[in-house]
Structures are given as structure tokens and as C-alpha cells.
Amino acid sequence: MTAGAADAAGTAAGRTGVLVMAHGTPGSPGDIEAFYTRIRRGRPPSPELLEELTGRYEAIGGTSPLNLRTRAQVDGLAAALEAAEPGRFEVRLGTKYVDPSIEDAVGGLAALGVARIVGIVLTPHQSTLGSGEYFDRARTAAAGAQPPLGLTVIPSWHRAPAFAPLLAARTRAVLDALDGPSRARTAVFFTAHSLPERVVAAGDPYPDQVAETGTDVARLLDLDADPTVRWGTAWQSAGRTADPWIGPDLLVEMDRVAAEGATAVVVCPVGFVSDHLEVLYDLDIEARARADALGIAFARTPSLDDDPEFLAMLADVVRSAADGAP
């Protein structure tokens, strides 16, 4: 260990590491094929699938802003933790598919000399294909550190007290911004990334948790008492695989409510915390185009991104987990 590294480790001794885990996205158009291959667990995409994905990135400007948004969230979380408890936490980002990896982030925290880590994923809901895979990698890396690190995970944070109010405020603002004719019969959908049905059949808690978030937001807005509004949960961004994925699909639901007389669709993507491909393309381009074809209005709620209130909420979640850790 160099003198500088030793000084850093000494400074961090006694601190709690915070491992913030996120999905990651290609940094440039030239990285798309390798990224897609990693998502497909080493199976290269067909030329047709690669062309389709590349076209989606081109439609939103060539690359996704997800990496920049995630970095801003991690920096904002670190600042919120430091403001709340100066000197207690060391925060590092680890991503699933790009650099820095989850393993690199755990190694960086170990090199600083922290004794234990709190792990949180930048997705509100728990699933075996989502947070579960992140935590498995974090556990392996923490156990392999020298000396091994204790790891406390936060399986989900969709019921954090401030989460539903943040989404409700965004949804209310969008509803209030609809013009009079569009507001006449509005369908509100709370969406999240679909999962293969086989995962749900095995008892994954994800669908129930997503439904809980939608119910929490709808209750805060008293949507059931508004005769001009219907609401529900829908799924988006299903993978291009032969396996069936859970539904109902958002686009299919849009067709249904339009046929039943809806004049507007409002989408609150409760499963996503920042602007990225599934929001900027699947909603802003694809879903909006479907609404235009159906002759109804379309709007979606702004992403949480690096909203200070959102990051302060995450800081509270991390601090609670750290206080309860052995």
C-alpha cells in the first residue's frame, strides 16, 4: 500500500461504506453491441436486434443520459449523507454492466479500510432479476475482500415515507397541466419494467411491490374519488425473448382505454428513478406515438433524477439501514 493509500485508509477507518448499485448504459454508440451482449449473458444479438437497439439510442440522441444521471444521484446522495452525519460514510458507485463494476466499487471501499458496507440499488422494488443479482455480486465481492467486509443490503425502498409523496406531486402537476378537453376522461398508469412470467411464478415480490407503489400514489391523490380519472398498473419495456413477460402491457392498455373513451393517458413510471432509454424512448417516443395514433393526449411525470428531496430520502434510507446493521 502506498503512503497515500495508507493515509486514505486511516481516514476512512471507522466509516461505513455505501455501495450504490445501478444498471449502467453504453458510453458511446460504439459500445452498444458489447453492452447488449453482456445483457444477453454473453449471447451476441442478431443483426436485426442490434439495429433495432441502435436505432432507439439514435432516436434519443445517440446515447442515454443514464450514466450522467446516475453519477449525479450518487454525488447528491454522498452530499446528503455528509450533511446529515459528517465523516460517517464513504460512498462508491458500482454498476451491473459497465465500469465501475460492483466488484470494483467493493474493492475500492475495502482499500479505504471500511469494515462494513450498506448496499442500495437505484431501483425502488425488489426482484430476483434486478436487485437480487446486484446483491449476489456484492455479497461475493464483500466476502472475498481481505479482510472480509460485512454487508447490509436494502432489498427495496418503495415504502420509504417520502417516495410516494414525491411521485404524487409529479403526477398531480401533470394532471393539472392537461387542457380541459383532454382532462375529461383520463387514464393514469403506474408503470415499471416487465419481468418474465417464470420469475413471477417463482414467487418474486416485484409485481406486488410495484402495485403497492401505484396504490400509495393513487391514495395520496384520492384518484378513486375523481370521476374523471381511472388508474391502474401497467408494464413496459419487455425483453425481446421467446419467454412470455408479465402484463398488461402499457401500449395494449392504451388501446383499451382509448376504445373505452379515454381522452388522455398519464404515465408515472414508478419503477425508474432517472431519464434513460426506457423512459426517453419507450414512453416519450413509442407510447406518445401510440397516443397520437389513437387521437388522445399523452403525458408522463418528470423523472426523479437528482432532485435533492429524492436524494435526502435515499440518505435517510441508508442511515436507517446503517443504524440497524450488526
Summarize the structure in words:
With 326 residues, this protein is of the alpha/beta class. The protein has two domains: 3-157 and 307-324, Rossmann fold (3-Layer(aba) Sandwich), CATH 3.40.50.1400; 163-300, Rossmann fold, CATH 3.40.50.1400. 49% of the residues lie in helices and 15% in strands. It contains 14 helices and eight strands. It has helices at 3-12, 32-39, 47-59, 66-84, 102-112, 131-144, 163-177, 180-183, 197-201, 206-221, 250-259, 277-280, 282-294, 308-324; strands spanning 16-22, 89-95, 116-121, 150-153, 186-193, 229-236, 264-268, 297-300. The strands form two sheets. A four-stranded parallel sheet has the order 2-1-3-4, sandwiched between helices. It has a four-stranded parallel sheet with strand order 6-5-7-8, sandwiched between helices. Helix 6 links the parallel strand 3 and strand 4. Helix 4 (66-84) packs across helix 14 (308-324). The protein is globular and about 65 Å long. It starts with a helix and ends with a helix.
